[in-house]
Amino acid sequence: MFDTKMNDAEIGYLTLYFEKYKIHRQENKNVLLICSTGVGTSELLKVRIQQNFSSLNITATMSQRQVKKNQEFIKENVDLIFSTIRVPLKIEKIPVLLISPLLTDKDIQNINHTMKELEEWKKLN
Prior knowledge:
The chain is an alpha/beta fold. It is built from five helices and four strands. The model has no long low-confidence stretch (mean pLDDT about 85).
């Protein structure tokens, strides 16, 4: 397809980038934020979560209606869901944590606890 040749050093260099991505992907958890409308307080919540948890990547913020329409995206791209509203979610193997829109100290403790449980489960499986 392409008439380009790469030497071993270039291939090794590219391999380093793929390995870095793989490690980064394993360490960081992709999080979906669910709020009543999907905007407004979710942006403030997103910033507060990122300040407190550098290993969490906020993949998207959605309303309950958007969640119903984006099930496939969620299954493929989300490791953990934080919701400010009680929603009857049935997404396979993705933990859902109910948190305050203000991210209280109790929420931070619950997130830390959940992250530790996920790591323990990951080690066992």
